[in-house]
Amino acid sequence: MIAFAKPFTVQRRLPQLKERNMGKITRRLFIGTGVVAATGLAVGAGYLSSLDLKGIKTHGGTRLNAWIEILADNSVKIFAPRAEMGQGAHMGIATLIAEELDVPLSSITVEHASELLPAYINTMLAVGKRPEDVTGLVDKTMQRAFSTFPYIGTGGSTTLPDAWVPMRVAGATAREMIIAAAAQKWAVANKSEISVADGVVTHTPSKRTATYGELTAVAAQLTPPTDVNLKSPDQFKLIGKTNQARVDLPAKVNGTAIYGVDVKAPGMMIATLVQAPRIGATVKSVDDSAAKNMPGVTKIIKRDTYVAVVGKSYWFAKQALDALKIEWQGGEAVNTVDLEKGLETAFSTGKPHEFRKAGDSSVQLTAAKLVIEARYSVPYLAHMCMEPMNATAWFKPDGSLEVWAPCQGSVIMKLAADASLKSVPKIAKYNTTYLGGGFGRRGERDYVMQALQIAEDMPGTPVKLIWSREEDMAHDLYRPAALAKMRGAVDAKGKITALEADIAVQSVAQAFAKRSLPYSVDGASDKMNVEGLDTLPYALPNIRIASKVTELPVPVGNWRSVGNSQNAFFAESFVDELAHAANADPLDFRITLLKDNPRVLAVAQKLKEISGWGSALPENTARGVAIVESFLSIVGEVAEVSVTKEGTLKVHRVHCVVDCGVAVNPNVIAAQIQSGVHYGLSAALYGKTTFKDGMAEQLNFDAQDVLRLATAPEVIVHIMPSTAAPGGIGEPGTPPIAPAVANAIFALTKNRVRSLPLSDAKLAWG
Amino acid sequence: MQLSINGVTQTIDAPPEMPLLWALRDLIGLTGTKFGCGIAQCGACTVLVDGVAQRSCSLNVGDIGTAKITTIEGVGEGVGDGKTLTKIQQAWIDEQVPQCGYCQSGMIMAVTGLLAQNKKPSDAEIDEAITNICRCGTYDRIRKAIHRAAAASAVEGA
Questions:
Q1: Is A557 exposed, middle or buried (0-12, 13-18, 19+ CB in 10 A)?
Q2: Per-residue pLDDT for A94 more than 90?
Q3: In whole angstroms, how far apart are CA A577 and each of A567, A640, A758?
Q4: A596: which residues sit within 8 A by CB, 6+ positions away?
Q5: Which of B26, B35, B104 sits opposite A252 (nearest CB)?
């Protein structure tokens, strides 16, 4: 085990619930606890029970527990309660289960579980701790409360940290039940004579064999053991192996993978909509005289904040939508300059909330010979998932409801139904399709609520709502804009003697809870305001990190890596400024400050080695470095960047070193780091949403460019060997890239870019 | 109106200005071709028209005439689960390219069009020809997979 020099900050989507909110939560969420206990599906050993799964979905085989079904042909179905949005969640869960169940990955297919079982909650996301670390009354009480919710969500890079122990236990428990079934069938007294491999059970003394498929029906009748052993790392056949093929890829190369937009149901109609273009505006009047008789149009639906057209095709509906004459009223006619003033006002009048304070930075800054002060800013950012927002709902003739959505959590569909319907049917099924990108956007429920409302107006008819790209970008829940004021000092030995950061920002957790959760969150103490800054890994004896939150009209939400996406830019750019102030090499400067933090130090040293740090580069090219801890993982990146004298920027190559604990799926980890770099770099280079008269100005890819093959850098990933429990991997690749590129620009041109996107910066030099 | 799609003649009831994308998805039920932007920017809707890659969101069905349309469902030999993968699809598996996968139908069709015209494209030629957007950032692996598919086809052709 590699020990951490300091406690690792648990970062997650939802901050710890405030004490004062707990009473409300426990009262509200504990309703039904008795039911949970009675079904045996409460969190704990009961979630592995096969005895209480009557009525649960099968494919004609036998469910051994909430995650595993084995069919007669020895194939295995895994019901994963986490959304597959590209990050490899289904592969990760399949790998952990298959490792202990001892079946080949090729025998497995994975689908998203549709039942809202308490056992499926994401403890890491809800409670902020790994399930195996949930001890003590407070944590257990919170876990039980969220089980009743049930908090089934995908986000915060939590899938693997959450699944690491329980999914292996689920696989091992099923395996032991199959062994016990074999022992019973063959009348073998000593179960240790029975071994398993690749889905086949063998009794060596009698040379008898049976497949799992032959034994699973008997196994399901047995009481699950509660004391299973897990493999030691030297016994792993799948975990950590580089030759694994992702279970979801065959369907993704031949067009058969079903995303939300691909859902089909008998007699289905397709809807599209226009929402009030100005933030907070409502519909005043609709003239549908031209639209209602257009071909293929079934119905026009007017609501307070949007107008939808339902038709035989998205295109028919869209043509009619464009023919509507809609008058809007009210709303917040803000411009980007007003929003920037709002952040400035937060600086001058807001109340600071300190998240990290040690030593006395103000005394040190007063005493310092040279104080470095800098002011940084970032804009609002849209998510731009490849698949525009969509959802399908069907109020069936039998009175039940079925919903399909590409959602980061099946409970989101239930919450959407609770919040938007006149009457929620007693029987409801919530299907999670593949997601064409998520990035935090699909943890929201707005598009599901709309699909439900439209379908409720058309009982008996399945309705698929698809947003246009323009609606997707005009009605995002944006990464907040933020301002940072940084102050710091270094001594002659290259030590940082003081570091202060004040951030003005909107609280994402507060905004998200207000929209989507049955409890409130305090914005001032939202850790996401400062994550990426308060997590700086260096020796910082005198440090003060604070935020001043403000409420502005633009709706904000979780954007891949959340607060880290802006704060790491502020933090790692400013550390670079301090390195140059100390006349130190920026990477050596960091290494010196990491000597008490061995895990991050090892990443920094490996990065220096593999990136060729200090070696010659082509003309007008330089390197920049950034290292960020986020989501229980550490990622260091060195960007090789050229800037022509005329100011044309190109990022050629990015070397990455990642320590994410045990590398369960190395191929997925490398892909996610490449992905995180590209996502973060698209934003750093081009990303911004500006507002004019309360309306977003960038509405499609022609107005908001992103990386393409010609502009995407080569991304080389090195994974540190580790036996520590897995960290997250979907997000940690994103935060370091913006500062790494900005630091490279400075190294080459001596121009310190403190505001994003880089495409707005004047980079001509020399 | 009749269209030749994946070797099958399809009769659709659509006005001539309807984009091929929506005829494929909503009228014919071939959902492998994806909607991303509607303005020929992202390439998620790429199909082959007489072997040439085109963005189907901006191609009206009335302008297609007798041209042969190939979608992601139409590549490879055979039918259903037994369908073989093309060299390009196999390269996509071998390089473990897709993440969310939403753009990959369009990517594979764009690359199918490219390799039909240029059996061994250089990196610069790939950059110029394949302008499709992938928000997951699978570009490194796409480039490797294109070269792998080109090499595999060259071996077979030799």
A1: buried
A2: yes
A3: 15, 18, 18
A4: A5, A539
A5: B104
Tokens of B47: 């199909």
Q: Which of residues 62-121 of B touch A (CB under 8 A)?
A: 71-73, 75-76, 83, 85, 89, 92-93, 96-105, 108
| C-alpha distances out from residue A300 to A290, A318, A325, Å | 12, 11, 12
What does the CA dihedral A94, A97, A100, A101 come to, rounded to 10 degrees? Answer: -90
Nearest CB to A700: which of B19, B37, B92? B37
Residue A634 one-letter amino acid: I
* Structure token digits, residue A392: 């399908």
Contacts with B, A 487-516, CB within 8 Å: none
> Chain B: nearest CA to A320, how far in angstroms?
13
Residues listed for chain A: 766
Among residues A344, A362, A343, A363, which one has the least CA distance to residue A354? A362
The closest alpha carbon to A561, from A571, A576, A549, belongs to: A571
Evaluate if residue B100 carries a pLDDT over 60.
Answer: yes
A469 with B38: Cβ contact below 8 A: yes
CA dist., res. A358 & res. A363, Å (int): 12
Residues A444 and A515 sit within 8 Å (Cβ to Cβ): yes
- pLDDT tens profile A663-710: 999 999 999 999 999 999 999 999 999 999 999 999 999 999 999 999
Q: Report the Cα A731 to chain-centroid distance in Å.
A: 6
The mean pLDDT of chain A is 92
Flag whether pLDDT at A41 surpasses 60: no
Nearest-by-CA chain B residue for A464? B26
Whether B6 contacts chain A with CB within 8 A: no
**Mean pLDDT computed over A584-588:** 98
- Contacts with A672 from chain B: Cβ below 8 Å: 99
Gap between the Cα atoms of A505 and A514, Å rounded: 17
User: Whole-model pTM?
Assistant: 0.94
Distance of CA B41 to the CA centre of its chain: 15
Is the separation of the CB atoms in B154 and B120 below 8 Å?
Answer: yes
Cβ-based neighbours of A296, under 8 Å, separated by 6 or more: A311, A312, A313, A315, A316, A317, A320
Structure-block tokens of residue A607: 């990065």
